[in-house]
Amino acid sequence: MKSLKSYFIFPIHFVLQMTNLGFWGMMIFCFGIMRFIIPINIVSKLLLRLMHFFYFTFSIFSVGMIKFFNKVNIEVKVDEELSKHKWYLIIANHISYLDIILLIRFCAEHTSPPKFFLKKELIWLPFVGIAAWALDMPFMRRYTQDFVQKNPHLKGTDIETTRQSCAKFLDSPTSVINFVEGTRFSPAKAQDRKSPFSNLLPPKAGGIAFTLASMGEQFSNLLDITLAYPQNADHPMRDMLSGDMTHIVIDVSVHPVHEQIIGDYFNNSGFRENFQVWLNELWVNKNTRMKTWMKGLKAQ
Q1: pTM of the entire predicted model
Q2: Rounded distance, CA 202 to CA 206, Å?
Q3: Helix, strand or coil for residue 116?
Q4: How far apart are CA 129 and CA 274, in angstroms?
Q5: Cα gap 203→36, rounded to integer Å
Q6: Exposure of 160 by Cβ count < 10 A (0-12 exposed, 13-18 middle, 19+ buried)?
Q7: How far is CA 244 from CA 16, 56, 154, 194, 283, in A?
Q8: Beta strands at 114-116 and 175-179: parallel, antiparallel or unpaired
Q9: Which of the chain's ends, N or C, has fewer CB atoms near its CB within 10 Å?
Q10: For every residue of 65-106, which 3-state class applies, written as one string?
């Protein structure tokens, strides 16, 4: 019966989620075009505020449908009070595209509007790409080390993109989100990268180090967000659309942005080493929490 129910729910839920995404994505894009055509600062800010409203409304409807189609417990843990009028740097693990919806919804309730660092390929994703472009989200093009060696003029491209994006974020309170693993977790990727973690990929430090160097004094705090789907870890997006999602954990640890994590990551080897140790310790703690959730639910 569970399988038959899932087959019935999946197409209905999928169509409704895509309709929600398409509608609000096009609304954001249309007002983004207006913002581009009318380059007047006060008009631009008013239009951006309205686009953020659409952005948050998309996530509210999306998570509302998730709750309607799934008997799911969404457990949100935050260890300090947050503000919608402050800048935050958010680092998170990445398991599924569902992570993005949940993070937007979390920020709608707790923080300033979130901006993701996205892979360049996502600009072609229907509705998502055009909406992200309209909201001034940075698209990063990843090059392999071998490719950069053959094309040295491309070295530092991501850094320049980050620099330009950080300059835009200074205008209004923003929560900058970076999936520091660089891609979604899977056991195959963990094995390929020789990950020391059971539930995570090794973190990449360069992007957030440069963001901190560019905006460190602007950020009120660094938010370390751990996302977990303890009973649906293998296929969370499919299970959610099928009505089989049971438990979601969003655990938020609030950290100060102290001067020890702001520095020249690319030219100061001592700072780089210390920064990598600091980030790796966050990931060790994150992995420990995830293992605890997995064991706790299996015991139930």
Answers
A1: 0.88
A2: 13
A3: strand
A4: 36
A5: 36
A6: exposed
A7: 17, 25, 45, 31, 28
A8: parallel
A9: N
A10: HHHHHCCCEEEEEECCCCCCCCEEEEEECCCCCHHHHHHHHH
